[in-house]
């Protein structure tokens, strides 16, 4: 049973990844996210179902558009693969770590919420890395969904109202920290999008896992900046967007927050 669920989630993830490519592109460059057919960005030829099979189409077409033979960015199959693997891991986490493989409404809602959050984070990872933007059209609805899910948890007794209050406090603190960073640092690579992303992450990660999220976010961001300096891709004083690293921190906190904290506390003693 669980094997078939995980295989299903992997295939679902590949398909969602293909959709996330569209979301990431259109949320920055315009166009309706939910309707309209996909077109080649070069020749604008409408793509058919056969051109849109996750990963397989890219491989069969050897990375070229079927119509104009211009190169297709390797980003598209990479995002599809990442999404497939993330969905697969969410299935595993849901089954083993969260131990909620009882087909109740609560556990199914939890699974759907995890898949939703992972998709949002992946979409924002792409938009910030590729275009340096964290579009409101993604962050604001995601904050709405996360808030609704938390309210559902309170109404059905999975968390207390105090627990929700703490999560909200964490969210506002995160937003305040990033507002401060944007305001006082004058960093070109930081903006209002980071404040909203920080709020979203604070809300769904909550206390104390948010500490792991922040730590991993700043650590990976710092390491990546140093690497880019060393290989000469960036010069000192150039900016690197923080959003992609915040999403990596958020995913780590979501999947391994309690374990990483426990490891840290134990190694301190
Ligand atoms: Zn083309």
TrEMBL record:
<feature type="transmembrane region" description="Helical">
    <location>
        <begin position="242"/>
        <end position="265"/>
    </location>
</feature>
<dbReference type="GO" id="GO:0004190">
    <property type="term" value="F:aspartic-type endopeptidase activity"/>
</dbReference>
<comment type="function">
    <text>Plays an essential role in type IV pili and type II pseudopili formation by proteolytically removing the leader sequence from substrate proteins and subsequently monomethylating the alpha-amino group of the newly exposed N-terminal phenylalanine.</text>
</comment>
<dbReference type="GO" id="GO:0032259">
    <property type="term" value="P:methylation"/>
</dbReference>
<keyword id="KW-1133">Transmembrane helix</keyword>
<feature type="transmembrane region" description="Helical">
    <location>
        <begin position="161"/>
        <end position="185"/>
    </location>
</feature>
<dbReference type="InterPro" id="IPR050882">
    <property type="entry name" value="Prepilin_peptidase/N-MTase"/>
</dbReference>
<keyword id="KW-1003">Cell membrane</keyword>
<dbReference type="InterPro" id="IPR010627">
    <property type="entry name" value="Prepilin_pept_A24_N"/>
</dbReference>
<feature type="transmembrane region" description="Helical">
    <location>
        <begin position="133"/>
        <end position="155"/>
    </location>
</feature>
<keyword id="KW-0511">Multifunctional enzyme</keyword>
<keyword id="KW-0997">Cell inner membrane</keyword>
<keyword id="KW-0808">Transferase</keyword>
<feature type="domain" description="Prepilin peptidase A24 N-terminal">
    <location>
        <begin position="11"/>
        <end position="93"/>
    </location>
</feature>
<dbReference type="Pfam" id="PF01478">
    <property type="entry name" value="Peptidase_A24"/>
</dbReference>
<feature type="transmembrane region" description="Helical">
    <location>
        <begin position="107"/>
        <end position="126"/>
    </location>
</feature>
<feature type="transmembrane region" description="Helical">
    <location>
        <begin position="74"/>
        <end position="95"/>
    </location>
</feature>
<keyword id="KW-0812">Transmembrane</keyword>
<feature type="transmembrane region" description="Helical">
    <location>
        <begin position="5"/>
        <end position="25"/>
    </location>
</feature>
<protein>
    <recommendedName>
        <fullName>Prepilin leader peptidase/N-methyltransferase</fullName>
        <ecNumber>2.1.1.-</ecNumber>
        <ecNumber>3.4.23.43</ecNumber>
    </recommendedName>
</protein>
<dbReference type="GO" id="GO:0006465">
    <property type="term" value="P:signal peptide processing"/>
</dbReference>
<dbReference type="Pfam" id="PF06750">
    <property type="entry name" value="A24_N_bact"/>
</dbReference>
<dbReference type="GO" id="GO:0005886">
    <property type="term" value="C:plasma membrane"/>
</dbReference>
<dbReference type="InterPro" id="IPR000045">
    <property type="entry name" value="Prepilin_IV_endopep_pep"/>
</dbReference>
<keyword id="KW-0645">Protease</keyword>
<keyword id="KW-0378">Hydrolase</keyword>
<comment type="similarity">
    <text>Belongs to the peptidase A24 family.</text>
</comment>
<dbReference type="InterPro" id="IPR014032">
    <property type="entry name" value="Peptidase_A24A_bac"/>
</dbReference>
<feature type="domain" description="Prepilin type IV endopeptidase peptidase">
    <location>
        <begin position="115"/>
        <end position="224"/>
    </location>
</feature>
<keyword id="KW-0472">Membrane</keyword>
<keyword id="KW-0489">Methyltransferase</keyword>
<dbReference type="GO" id="GO:0008168">
    <property type="term" value="F:methyltransferase activity"/>
</dbReference>
<feature type="transmembrane region" description="Helical">
    <location>
        <begin position="197"/>
        <end position="230"/>
    </location>
</feature>
